[in-house]
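=== RUN LOG ===
request id: a7f3
mode: sequence -> structure
chains: 1
length: 348
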Amino acid sequence: MSIEYTKADTSTREALYDALLTFWDQRWTDEFQREFMAWRYERRLDGETFVAMSGAKCIGLVDTFVRPYFIDGRQVVIREPCDWFCLPGNRGVGMRLMKWMATQEEPLLGVGLPKTAISIARRMNWTRLLDTYDFVLPITVRRVLGAVVRKAHLGNGSVTRFLPRWRLRSDAAWRKYREMDGEIEELAPAQWPEEDLSGPYADYGVAPIVTRSYVQWLAACPSSLGNVFLLSFRIGGEIVGLSICRIERSKVGCKARLIHIQSFRPGLRTLQWMIAENVQRASLHAAESFHCRSSCPVTNAALLSLGSRRTAADAVFMDLKGLERPSGPVNMTFVRGDDAMIPSLIGE
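=== RESULT ===
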């Protein structure tokens, strides 16, 4: 049977969903499956899915998010591939999809590519920019004990959820990082700033521009994925940073994922304040641990100074499509492709 390469639409949606569920292999209820798929693919505004159809069956796909970035002084629309998948025996189909996606006009950006994809990216002249790191900060004693249980191969650590929730640090320990004349505002998604904030991005060679429409979509995720809170940080009335954090379920109880942090004054003191405020609020939301991804050297230093430790490193690749290699630091967070949601599906 011939294979048709096309972009997903309403006529291929159910076949796409069947293929994805095979790929993810998650034990979801029918209700959650419908709710998650509708949010993830039907209500998303900025993205496209490339599919290979054999008759009525989807045998391969590459999903992409499309968003503006600030790159060396100007705004550029970037395409972020994710969910690259084909059924066994159809590897050639996967390559055809990848090559088709690469013919799109936007530069491409990938993080944490599997080994096979890294070798392909290099053959397709993608440029490795640097590594981005995952960090974890324990908030409670039982989160630490859960990690000990897992490392000792005595279980998945879930037994520690029956212990009292003793915190490792008090609220006062986090409040000491607050800026003297700093103000913090919790935002509704519709309040996310839309004014031109490109000027403050000048400290970065590469940084995603997080739009209000994306934040509204992200916050409208199924409730079982966790609640999102948004913070705005000001000093002397001037906005100096924004953050997006979600409280998710984990084997021990709840965990906090700092999906995005953006400082318009990327100094150590300001980032310590922003991160500490998110940790304190996460603790009030009963989070046992705090997770973050960062490639920014100053953010990394702030995370380490607050007691976080690195748990993983992922390479950041770009197909620059004629752009010069970015010269400044990179601010790579969980705002990239589906990275802001897939960790929730895997759990910890």
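=== NOTES ===
The mean pLDDT is 87.
Residues 268-284 form the longest helix (17 residues).
=== END ===
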